[in-house]
Automatic annotation (TrEMBL):
SUPFAM superfamilies reported for this sequence: NAD(P)-binding Rossmann-fold domains, Thioredoxin-like, Winged helix' DNA-binding domain
Lineage: Bacteria, Bacillati, Actinomycetota, Thermoleophilia, Solirubrobacterales
GO MF annotation list: DNA binding; DNA-binding transcription factor activity
Domain of life: Bacteria
GO biological process: negative regulation of DNA-templated transcription; response to redox state
Keywords attached to this entry: Cytoplasm, DNA-binding, NAD, Repressor, Transcription, Transcription regulation
Described purpose of this protein according to its UniProt entry: Modulates transcription in response to changes in cellular NADH/NAD(+) redox state.
Record-linked InterPro entries: CoA-bd, Glutaredoxin-like, NAD(P)-bd_dom_sf, Rex_DNA-bd_C_dom, Thioredoxin-like_sf, Tscrpt_rep_Rex, WH-like_DNA-bd_sf, WH_DNA-bd_sf
Alphabetical list of PANTHER family matching this protein: REDOX-SENSING TRANSCRIPTIONAL REPRESSOR REX (PTHR35786), REDOX-SENSING TRANSCRIPTIONAL REPRESSOR REX 1 (PTHR35786:SF1)
Protein name: Redox-sensing transcriptional repressor Rex
Listed SMART domains: CoA_binding
Coiled-coil intervals: none
Length: 369
């Protein structure tokens, strides 16, 4: 009788997957079973099905747990499968033993009789064990899937550079940006490490979700220690493609514009405000920090000269639409709108409207509910 098999769907470089393999090795001391790993990177259907859930642990076609090993469920499933395999194997042997022996044909009179040849009866294969489960692995039969040796995910091996192979979903990109904001502030405060629980407290994202978001891009952090803040800041900036220079033009040199230009809100993440423009003659030529306020009529020249990617509108609401039109005409395709006005732009232009009131409304809902 073959030993029960536990299948782990994973991808190389996933530290949660490596942890799961370690946990399964520990369980094998209590209940013997084999472990087979399946690399989801080798099958597009498996990749789409499991990328957001790895590691996924399955026994006899039933998905038992995601992200981490549920020891009790795995051991229960292994023991149940062992009993079913034993029952099926015993039934097959009993069926083979109950068959009547073949009667040899009588030998010809002129030929000396010889004992009949002993023929090996083919033992029928063990019947497949039906798996009745709430969730089934349907991508393709497990026996045909490419397997990756557990050694390929050795946690002591250095992880490859975590370059994302697929485009991030909107939710994951937003969460990674929040992690980066908190980690950047922690670095400024002199923090060397931060746990997923601390990151969760500051971002209001479940710690399991945080580990899942990060595990797809390499091995980060150590149990009992946490994440290396400097390393994780560098890695997330690479994932979000913010390691390169990003030029910003700020439109509006009023109170809000001056506050934005004088803060580290963009500079902390490698973004550079290359120009501050306004249409007020009294402001043009006066400095904001190290930058002189320029004339908004030169917007197109500024965008071309500095390869501006992002335009920030910090003007009164009545002027915002006109400034947005000028940004679009100059070729800027990302606009941050702090004016509160509802902007009309072409479909290919992305507009992010930011308002402290929105965050306040969200916070007050939970306080007042």
């Amino acid at each position: 009788m073959s030993a029960p098999e536990v299948v782990v769907f994973l991808r190389p470089g996933c530290h949660l997957c490596a942890d799961a393999l370690d946990d399964l090795d520990a369980l094998r001391a209590q209940e013997p079973f084999t472990v087979r790993t399946v690399d989801i990177e080798r099958d597009d259907r498996l990749h789409a099905r499991y990328l957001e859930r790895i590691p996924v642990i399955a026994v006899a076609g039933e998905e038992l747990c995601d992200f981490a090993v549920d020891s009790e469920r795995v051991l229960t499933a292994v023991r149940d499968l062992r009993e079913r395999l034993a029952t099926a194997s015993g039934g097959a042997r009993a069926a083979a033993a109950s068959r009547p022996a073949a009667t040899p044909a009588p030998a010809a009179a002129a030929v000396t009789a010889r004992p009949p040849e002993r023929r090996l009866e083919a033992v029928p294969p063990e019947p497949a064990v039906p798996a009745v489960a709430p969730r089934r692995i349907v991508a393709q039969p497990m026996s045909t899937l490419d397997a990756t040796p557990a050694a390929a995910l050795d946690p002591d091996e250095p992880a490859a550079d975590p370059v994302p192979e697929v485009r991030l979903g909107v939710g994951q990109a937003e969460r990674l940006s929040r992690y980066l904001q908190v980690l950047t502030q922690a670095r400024k405060m002199g923090r060397a490490t931060m746990s997923s629980q601390e990151l969760s407290a500051h971002t209001h994202v479940n710690s399991t979700q945080i580990r899942r978001d990060l595990s797809g891009f390499g091995r980060f952090g150590k149990r009992g220690v946490g994440y290396d803040v400097e390393e994780l800041v560098t890695k997330i900036r690479g994932i979000l493609h913010t390691s390169q220079h990003v030029g910003i033009v700020l439109l509006g040199a009023g109170h809000l514009g001056r506050a934005i230009a004088g803060s580290d809100v963009f500079g902390d993440h490698g973004f550079e405000i290359v120009a501050v423009l306004d249409n007020d003659p009294a402001k043009i030529g006066t400095p904001i920090g190290d930058l002189p306020i320029g004339d908004v009529r030169h917007l197109g020249e500024v965008v071309r000269e500095h390869e501006v990617v992002v335009g920030v509108i910090a003007s009164p609401a009545k002027a915002a639409q006109g400034l947005a039109d000028e940004l679009v005409e100059a070729g800027v395709q990302i606009i941050f709108n702090y004016s509160g006005s509802l902007l009309r732009t072409p479909a290919e232009v992305t507009v992010h409207t930011s308002s402290p009131a929105v965050d306040l409304l969200h916070a007050l809902y939970y306080y007042l509910a």
